């Protein structure tokens, strides 16, 4: 949960998650929707899917015993070299280096590294330094300390150098370039995409579809959508093709922007009241096919489903 997310944001999610899934077995046996429901709002949902898959893998492949070697850990979904190192150091007290964002910042400043930290050659250099500094004893204390140092004192902005125990030997402090480091290669401006979210409303319920397991909001539930701003003719054709609707009214809601790591998404919700429509799931059942992942969702009697934040926002906007 702490990958790319701040501690204060994570704490309530972590507490609810651990209350629901106190051990590997309970997590492995959970339905994916249960896991995503507790993760909803944290973002980067592949983390939740990987965590769920990792628990299943440990129960099946490792007979319920959490692996304690780098190779075995990195074979689990979502676990790379740094996460494996953190697990080995903190849970098993094995000597293993880590290199999360906070540690990168501490090492870059301490050693005065002026090449971009998001370049491969610099990252290799930082791994060498992380390995060099990792002690043989009190490994868990050291690992927690260097992460906390970056999170609390050696922060991105307004670092508290006067309180830092490494100040006297810190190259960036000696050269007066603490505010400059670490350097990152310039990232291009995020592109903007637009999408119309179709809110098919039947009585108090809204039609939701389960998204594919990969990609944005993988395995979460969302409204049907079409690319671009609302266009009545396109909405009509889509509704007729997908749901056999021939006539309908539509009510635009206020648009808003949601930002992902790689782009901005401008969302235009449109309410379409219906009396009855033939959903894909209903047509699949009629044809003896496998039921499609599509439901009528009542926001006044919510089910434990994984909903992206923008979908929750649209549900709150509805009159």
From TrEMBL:
SMART domains: ENDO3c. InterPro entries: A/G_AdeGlyc_MutY (IPR005760), DNA_glycosylase (IPR011257), Endonuclease-III-like_CS2 (IPR004036), HhH-GPD_domain (IPR003265), HhH_base_excis_C (IPR023170), HhH_motif (IPR000445), MIG/MutY (IPR044298), MutY_C (IPR029119). One of its GO terms (biological process) is mismatch repair. Binds 1 [4Fe-4S] cluster. CDD domains: ENDO3c (cd00056), NUDIX_DNA_Glycosylase_C-MutY (cd03431). It catalyses: Hydrolyzes free adenine bases from 7,8-dihydro-8-oxoguanine:adenine mismatched double-stranded DNA, leaving an apurinic site. Adenine glycosylase active on G-A mispairs. MutY also corrects error-prone DNA synthesis past GO lesions which are due to the oxidatively damaged form of guanine: 7,8-dihydro-8-oxoguanine (8-oxo-dGTP). NCBIfam families: mutY (TIGR01084). This is Adenine DNA glycosylase. The lineage of its organism: Bacteria, Pseudomonadati, Pseudomonadota, Gammaproteobacteria, Legionellales.
């Amino acid at each position: 949960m702490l990958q790319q997310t701040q501690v204060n944001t994570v704490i309530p999610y972590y507490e609810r998650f651990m209350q629901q899934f106190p051990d590997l077995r309970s997590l492995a046996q959970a339905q994916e929707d249960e896991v995503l429901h507790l993760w909803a709002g944290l973002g980067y949902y592949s983390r939740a899917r990987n965590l769920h898959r990792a628990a299943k893998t440990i129960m099946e492949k490792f007979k319920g015993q959490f692996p304690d070697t780098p190779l075995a850990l990195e074979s689990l979904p979502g676990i790379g070299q740094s996460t494996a190192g953190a697990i080995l150091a903190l849970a098993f007290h094995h000597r293993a280096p880590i290199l999360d964002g906070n540690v990168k910042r501490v090492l870059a400043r301490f050693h005065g590294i002026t090449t971009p930290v998001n370049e491969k050659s610099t990252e290799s250099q930082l791994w060498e330094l992380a390995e060099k500094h990792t002690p043989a004893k009190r490994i868990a204390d050291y690992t927690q300390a260097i992460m906390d140092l970056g999170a609390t004192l050696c922060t991105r902005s307004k670092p508290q150098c006067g309180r830092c125990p490494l100040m006297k030997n810190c190259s960036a402090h000696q050269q007066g370039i603490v505010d400059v480091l670490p350097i990152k290669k310039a990232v291009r401006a995020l592109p903007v995409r637009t999408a119309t979210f179709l809110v098919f409303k039947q009585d108090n319920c809204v039609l939701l579809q389960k998204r594919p397991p990969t990609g944005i909001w993988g395995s979460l539930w969302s409204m049907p959508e079409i690319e671009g701003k609302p266009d009545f003719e396109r909405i009509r054709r889509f509704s007729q093709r997908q749901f056999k609707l021939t006539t309908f009214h539509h009510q635009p809601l206020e648009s808003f922007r949601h930002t992902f790591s790689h782009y901005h998404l401008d969302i235009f919700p449109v309410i379409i009241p219906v009396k009855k429509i033939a959903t894909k799931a209903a047509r699949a059942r009629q044809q003896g096919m496998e039921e499609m992942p599509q439901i009528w969702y009542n926001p006044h009697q919510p089910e434990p489903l994984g909903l992206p934040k923008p979908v929750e926002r649209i549900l709150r906007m509805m009159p």
